[in-house]
């Protein structure tokens, strides 16, 4: 055998050892490293060739030493390159942006009793176990309590990371003896607009620890009822859905809620008519016997005797006018009726005017309905605001012949149907609660969404103010407990921040206006009832703050629209006297005269001037300004005819280190106005190329820089509105929800100081909070989702910069529809 001959050694580059730190070192070292690595590969290849061809032991040992020496040269050169800084190491990833949840978990009145927190639309109880509850909130996802029998259950959010926190229904599968199979239907059912996309069903098989999305065929449908059937039909699940981006109806699954399809029927006569699905119940006396309610042109109640495959209309005894365009039909099933091999059924019908129009009862299987007289005052008493299409619930006592109903107001009513011909109605909330209860003595929160009996025969009431438990529903004087104290599902329509006291204030849906008593507290104090609107804070004084807010309807106000200004001291105590006109908590707020009736709406917004806090802008359709803290108000912009959308505005800024309080931006529809320093009136500086503006953000350090967000795009100017450049970049793709919709809501600009070159633009959307530091790149701007926020809608956002006009600052507060208020302090250092 002839041993292979080694290749001739290549010439060594070099000219002496490298001197780290001199110019050109890295270029020379990289060339040397490349040569050495090639030589090492050749030497290793030759050594392997010797071994494969049975070279002598001496030759193999010599080339092993050669390979070892060459490896040492490679490592030595690498060490020299590291010492010379020749390796480009990737930068450390930026630290995560961590917001702190501020609440409110609950809102209390002046006596410390709970008046609400946020909207809960459905409750699921585990059969035989009163300790386990699941709650579906309007915009805060699904929550679980495993100690629900206690006075203060510890609720925990279970679906914050799923694609949508907009919920319509939740149920525990009775076919799972462990109670660990939970199904939740998505859909927006808030009184105050969308809370997220309808993405189908969420399913958990481990008691709510983990979830996954199923029922993709139901995307775009608002699921209001989920009905998993009892054995022997435990794999069958039905849902009732209302129309959103897809059609409503009753849908059926035979694989435990994984996939759904419409009801086809085994014969054409067994199909359901087209129309929204309103309700579903199963007869406990006859598993597989179901009842549903459907809207549309053939609205009515239908029965199935084969687990939902086939249906027939059962409306005998129901007045025809009640079935002419009903807005909603609710069903309930009560105690067994052994004599008839069925159970007691109940139906409540909300008419086309969105008020309760009829109540009926029947024996399941017989299906002949008997009318029940309405409670005192009738439908108008339960639904004076005509919101029965979303605020109505009924439940039947599991043992007694009693029906419970609740609407948007009027509390809870119980009908004793021992004599169906003459039912006796009792208002259970008028009697109040014992002094030790954690709710006010008058009544629980209005706007009922669901009524459910738990395993202990307590009645649970889901309302826009949270969950209540009635522990004695069979007594004339019930015991009421609010059991949602740790459930953070508030819907802030606006958020504001007081830099003097470091607390937040919300104007929230259905729960009024509330504020933190002190930093870090999750239990907030109600300032005013009704529905809270726009809010902001004047921190121009050193020892007190002025807080502005709007309320709409009911509450402590005497009209449907009221503007308030209240004064707090540095200890966050409400003052009832001082140097400004005040609004005490129990009296109407300071009126701002001269506001057009069309602008007296909860959608009106406040904006305190960024550099002169005693100046204030207020916008509805028109824009108003006060330069003296509200003593006088002038019209700044009268809305031009034909423009869609509410006005959006921002005031104040700096230029070259000098305050410019005259600066104002106003946007209405697709037009933008601006007032420059020294000017008294608004003017249009140029043509804004975008669509309807939803928010305006201004760089407080250079007022000429501004950003406008519309529903699907973002626009930036550095010339005070003289020209605009789109900087949406990848945001439209990044922020799209699972249905492909893009809904950008609001915007702020953050710069640490006027000399800082890093401009951060933050945009809130239906799917979270997004950031770019490359807005100047225009169409090439790169965005990313930031923060530990839930996947809820960023409904409101406000940034308070550091400025001599107020104490503190550099704080970003974010209001999430259904998940409350979150704060980021030292924001410019973290975003």
Structure in a nutshell:
8% of the residues lie in helices and 37% in strands. It is mainly β and 831 residues long.
Give the topology.
Elements: H1 25-52, H2 57-83, E1 100-103, E2 106-108, E3 114-116, E4 120-126, E5 129-137, E6 142-145, E7 156-157, E8 167-172, E9 182-186, E10 201-204, E11 212-214, E12 221-228, E13 237-243, E14 249-253, E15 261-262, E16 277-282, E17 290-294, E18 300-304, E19 312-313, E20 328-337, E21 342-350, E22 356-363, E23 370-372, H3 378-382, E24 393-396, E25 402-406, E26 412-416, E27 424-427, E28 448-453, E29 459-463, E30 466-470, E31 480-482, E32 492-498, E33 503-508, E34 512-515, E35 523-528, E36 531-538, E37 544-552, E38 561-569, E39 574-575, E40 605-608, E41 616-619, E42 623-626, E43 634-637, E44 648-655, E45 658-668, E46 671-675, E47 695-698, E48 706-709, E49 714-717, E50 725-726, H4 731-734, E51 744-750, E52 760-765, E53 768-772, E54 784-786, E55 793-800, E56 811-817, E57 820-825, H5 827-830
Parallel strand pairs: 2-35
Antiparallel strand pairs: 1-57, 2-3, 4-5, 5-6, 6-7, 8-9, 9-10, 10-11, 12-13, 13-14, 14-15, 16-17, 17-18, 18-19, 20-21, 21-22, 22-23, 24-25, 25-26, 26-27, 28-29, 29-30, 30-31, 32-33, 33-34, 34-35, 36-37, 37-38, 38-39, 40-41, 41-42, 42-43, 44-45, 45-46, 47-48, 48-49, 49-50, 51-52, 52-53, 53-54, ...
Helix pairs in contact: 1-2
